[in-house]
Amino acid sequence: MKKIIKITAALTSVLIFAAMAGMPVSAQSLQKTAGDKKPIPSEVMKIAQKSCTKCHIDGGMGGLKFTEWDSYTQEKQAAKAKAMCAKVSGKIMPPKNFVKKNPGAAPTDADIKTICDWSASLQPVKK
Ligand code: HEC
Predict the structure, then answer these.
(1) Residues in the ligand 1 pocket, defined by CB under 6 Å
(2) In tens digits, what is the pLDDT along the chain, a chain of 127 residues?
(3) Cα 29 to ligand 1 centroid, rounded to whole Å
């Protein structure tokens, strides 16, 4: 009888371990990498290509250049992402007359949320 209990306990701990190892990758990597230096995720890059890169790659206007993103420090990436969220939320970026000429480039509400959620994930964890 005792032996069965022992085996059950051992099995249970193996199962718990396996469950932890099988945790969704996103949850794991979020915990591990919040605040780390990261490339721009493709869903954000898609929006940037639609709405921002005309000015923020070739022009590098306003000190934001997506092609140099990966060379930014972790702090700079977090700060730039935060500024992007603020500017698109406030409809300051893309500039109004640019949107007027390129109506298709206006970010949707979902686009704005994608940028802001991503920005939030980059902010350093408060201690
Ligand atoms: C038509 C050109 C144009 C487009 C399109 C555009 N921007 Fe800008 N952006 C500028 C200019 C010019 C500045 C600098 C103006 C200023 O500082 O007031 C700027 C500044 C910024 C800044 C401030 C940079 C900093 O380091 O504080 C951010 C952030 C920004 N843009 C984000 C975006 C995002 C995000 C998009 C797309 C959703 C976008 N911009 C689309 C021209 C553009």
Answers:
(1) 51-52, 54-56, 61-64, 80, 83-84, 87-88, 93-95, 98, 107
(2) 666 556 556 544 544 444 555 444 444 444 444 556 789 999 999 999 999 999 998 678 888 999 999 999 999 999 999 999 999 999 999 999 999 999 999 999 999 999 999 999 999 887 7
(3) 30
Do residues 78 and 122 make contact, with C-beta atoms less than 8 angstroms apart? yes
Predicted TM-score (pTM) of the model is 0.77
Handedness of CA 75, 81, 85, 86 (dihedral sign): positive
The residue nearest atom 8 of ligand 1, judged by CA position, is 93
Distance CA 96, CA 84 (A): 15
Q: In 3-state terms, the chain is what percent helix, strand and coil (to 5)?
A: 70, 0, 30
E-assigned strand segments in 33-108 = none
Measuring CA to CA, how many Å separate 71 from each of 23, 26, 54, 66? 31, 24, 20, 10
